[in-house]
Specification:
It is built from 3 helices and 4 strands; from the N terminus they run βαβαββα. With about 100 residues, the protein is of the alpha+beta class.
């Protein structure tokens, strides 16, 4: 997949409830594919949700993304990715579970 030029990158901020999740509470495969395609092209895909951070982490895992920032708890919490955790190691994320 072709990467977009840095000046053409988008910030794609997605809500969770009523937007990403199906009525069953999971993420549809088509949505996962679209999110992965946007990220693969170089766009920054993140979540901005009213959910708590603990409730947001499983959605990030379903989407298979680990964005630099996540807004949760109706904007009360901002999570910034630890650069040491870029490998998505359980060692770095276990305290969030």
């Amino acid at each position: 997949m072709t990467q977009v030029a840095p000046e053409d990158r988008w910030l794609v901020a997605l809500d969770v409830d009523g937007t990403l999740l199906t009525h069953r509470g999971d993420v549809a495969p088509e949505v996962v594919d679209a999110v992965r395609a946007a990220a693969a092209r170089g766009h920054e895909v993140m979540l901005a949700t009213g959910r708590s951070l603990v409730e947001t982490i499983p959605v990030l895992r379903q989407l298979d993304i680990w964005p630099e920032y996540v807004v949760s708890s109706n904007g009360a919490m901002l999570l910034k990715r630890d650069p040491l955790a870029d490998d998505r190691s359980e060692e770095h994320t276990s305290e969030l579970q």
